[in-house]
Amino acid sequence: MQTHMSNFAITHSQAWLTAMFENAASAVFVFDTQAKLLACNPACCDLLDRSCDQLVGLELRLLKDSRVSQAVEQVLQGESVSLELDYQFTLNDRRLPLSFEFHPVRDRGELLGGIGLIENLSEKQEALSSNQRQIEFEKLVANISKRLVNASSDELDQTIDLVMAQLGHFFDVDRCYVFQYDSAGIEFSNTHEWCAESIESKMAVRQNLARSDFPWIHTQIMMQRPVNIPSVADLEDSVASERDVLLAQGVQSLLAIPMIEHGKLVGLLGIDSVRQPYTWVQDKITLLEVVAESISNALMRRSFEQALSRINQQYQQFSSQVPLGLYTLRVDAEQQAHYEYCNKQFLAMNGVNSAADLLNRKPIHPDDLADFQERQQFAWKAHKAFVWEGRYFLDDKVRWMRMEDSEPTQAENGDWIWSGFQQDITDRKQLEERLKELATVDDMTQLWNRRYFMLACDEEFERAQRYDNQFSFLMLDADHFKSVNDNYGHAAGDAVLVNLAKVLSDSVRKVDVVGRLGGEEFAILLPNTPESEAQLLAERIRHSVENYPADYKGQTLPITISIGISSYRSNDQDLDQVIQRADKALYQAKNQGRNRCVVAS
User: Which one, of 517, 410, 455, 524, lies nearest residue 135 by Cα?
Assistant: First the structure.
């Protein structure tokens, strides 16, 4: 492809400039003082989908988007201009998100024209959209888990149906369903199903299926492995029977997530794609495993509640059949209590061998004991149901327990009698902790938290290796922050961090990622940014922080920051190398007196 350079002199000694112009990854063009396009590089021709012959001579003042033409006018007045906008191309009627940079070109003070650089932001926006989609799914998973935890036994089937619909609509798939195994684990049936509009329900033909009907799929599920089949038609002949059954039901793609409770397979969460093949990525499968776990927990909880309802009628006969600690507690008018009945599970959960030892044994964690005693005394005095969740310390291990009584009944002699159960809820508490970890935003500063920030850095590092992109990394730390907490209190320290976060957010571009790593430590990811530009930005940020102190209850609280700067290098093997250089540079900035920026050597 020929590049037109008429009226734009490039001497033999400037051959390097010609090569840089021709081979630049960004679209570059040059225009004269009449705003006519003189030259453009191949990247510019590719972006505009036109040859240089078609572009040279184009009058930039007549462009459809007035913001661009105004920017050209500003350049011809000696100014540099940057723009980010969705640009409507006149030549090929395309619309793309673009970043423009315009700079004047001078020779010995005389204005010769201008140079423009265009960057297609589609890939960056697509990456941001993908991240936002993941965040939305994480929020959906947290909402689903909350719904299932709070659903009563009577509401659970309707709640699971709603969850199936939410997943189906979110992923735009065709069928979401739950299978449950019978108590012997021999047969499994479709108990809940959602189908997209115009998609036929298969629930009626998916009842009382034997493991032998789907031997390969069942083997994977029994090994607690998700079954991800992007194309049913491509399954090998060794599983031809399962392939043929699925194809007969119109299934093109299948995902099945095992539902495990106390190490036992109780069912599966399945998703079918009928209209077109569907490929699942691992991060979505991981979160769907959380959904499957929440459903199995809810179903098992309902089983427990239904069992308790039956046991309240004949609990002495059937109490050994459920994994719950069951008891009957009698309290007299003098607040003297004793257990009239308890099953073996209740004794084991409390670490004793007999009911006589129960009131003397205190396995409750010391930090939770006062809350337990306060709630129990209130229930005894007010004759109310007793409900408590807390930690037990048994066999050198911390276990979470839930105790729940029914409303008490009064005996003829005036004693009050409570019947209830104790349940080991350690697995549920661990699940709740996992859901908390799904959060992506730091509550106080509203910046990205460490987990999300590092995910963004990992993705940028992969892009840099794949496309040889440049990016930079800033590690920031508030100077002498401890003295703010010591002199003004932690509330003032929080105000300083919130203000610092706002200054950082206001100082960067939309494509940059600002995160709080913990305490007073922050970091900024600068995509497509060389080290020299990162250094300039770091200095601007440092000045802004110094010039915009926090205000706390009418009192100005100044703060400074130290910044370590590093950039991706082509020989970097992993992200840690970039971060470690920035961390080392930050350490040098601290040692050199703080309130400064240091570039990693």
Answer: 455
- How are strands ordered across the β-sheet holding 471-478? 513-518, 521-527, 471-478, 561-567, 597-599
Contacts of 123 (CB under 8 A, 6+ apart): none
Question: Same topology for domains 323-431 and 440-599, yes or no?
Answer: no
Superfamily assignment of 12-120 in CATH? Answer: PAS domain (3.30.450.20)
CATH class of 125-303: alpha beta
Helix, strand, coil distribution of the chain in percent, nearest 5? 45, 25, 30
- Rounded to 5 degrees, φ, ψ at 340 are -75, -30
Q: What's the average model confidence in pLDDT over 518-547?
A: 95
E strand residue ranges, 216-333: 227-229, 253-261, 264-273, 325-331
B/e letters for 432-444, b = 16+ CB within 10 Å, e = fewer, are: eeebeebebebee
Q: Answer yes or no: are the C-beta atoms of 145 and 290 closer than 8 Å.
A: yes
DSSP string, 56-80: TT-BGGG-S-HHHHHHHHHHHTT--
Q: Residue 419 gets which letter from DSSP? A: E
pLDDT score of 130 more than 80: no
Query: Does the pLDDT at position 321 exceed 80?
Result: no
Q: Which residues contact 48 (CB under 8 A, 6 or more apart)?
A: 27, 40, 55, 89, 91, 92
- pTM for this model (two decimals): 0.41
Confidence of residue 314 (pLDDT cuts 50, 70, 90): low
